[in-house]
Amino acid sequence: MDESRFAERGKNVLIYPYVVWVKPETIHLKNEIIVSEFVWILGGINTLIGNFIHISPYSSIVGGGVCILEDFVGLSAGVRIITGSEMAGGEGLTNPTIPSTCRAVERSFVHCGRHVFLGTNVIIHPSVTIGEGAVIGSNSVVTKDVDPWTINIGSPSLTVGRRKKAQMLDLEAVAYKDKGIQPTDIRWLLPLKKRIKTLPSESVLSEGQFTRDERE
After folding, report:
1. 190 CB contacts (<8 Å, ≥6 apart)?
2. Are the C-beta atoms of 31 and 13 separated by less than 8 Å?
3. Does the pLDDT at position 15 exceed 90?
């Protein structure tokens, strides 16, 4: 893949073989990033991967919405970040082989604040903000916002403790200074943190009703 197609690519970005990028033109890569083998990332509406980020093997960002990974975020092996999904309550047909006029899809967002750490096989559902410094333990499923600097485990995840904030922020300052890097500014992305539903139109539903009546 022509890596010049990224919306942005900073310094010291190491991308291992067998990484799949879909819509790289919507993906912003800052500085000091490692993306390991067999990662799959869909840029969607917009995806920001900040400074000092490691994405471990077999992780994925899917769903076609907005993903914000602020500085110092770590994704362990097999993490699943889901920024959007088919609506599965019968609003439409449910997979990408279906004509778009017959699908019901919600595009949303996932936002991980600075120093968020996601353990192995964590799943993050759409419309979730994980506060700065929070940890999500292995095999946990996150379906709602997570408070900053908390430790969380389970399915659904529950808070079981707190992290040491002061020392980590001191070390953050050292890392920025050592590499001559400025913190990532995410303010331009915040207005995109919303849910966008796309449903079959009334005309399509009317056409289906007519066909069904004929069949009956």
Report:
1. none
2. yes
3. yes
Specify burial of residue 42 (Cβ count, 10 A radius: 0-12, 13-18, 19+). Answer: buried
Decide: 84 and 127 in contact? Cβ < 8 Å. Answer: no
What DSSP element (H or E) covers 175? helix 165-179
pLDDT tens sequence across 69-128: 999 999 999 999 999 999 999 999 999 999 989 999 999 999 999 999 999 999 999 999
Token pair listed for 46 = 């917009």
Total domains, the chain: 1
What is the distance between the alpha carbons of residues 55 and 67, in angstroms, rounded to a whole number?
13
Domain of 26, in residue numbers: 3-215
Rg (CA), the chain: 19
The H-assigned helical ranges of the chain are: 165-179, 202-215
Nearest-angstrom CA–CA distance, 171 and 173: 5
Cα–Cα distance for residue pair 90/138, rounded to 1 Å: 32
Measured CA angle at 193 (ends 190, 197), to 5 deg = 155
* Token pair of 50 as six digits: 């900040």
CATH classification of the domain holding 170 = 2.160.10.10
DSSP 79: -
pTM of the complete model beyond 0.85: yes
Q: Which residue has the tokens 């430790």?
A: 151
To which residue do tokens 């609003």 refer?
91
| Tokens 């917009």 belong to residue | 46
Q: Do residues 111 and 193 lie in contact, with contact meaning Cβ atoms separated by under 8 Å?
A: yes
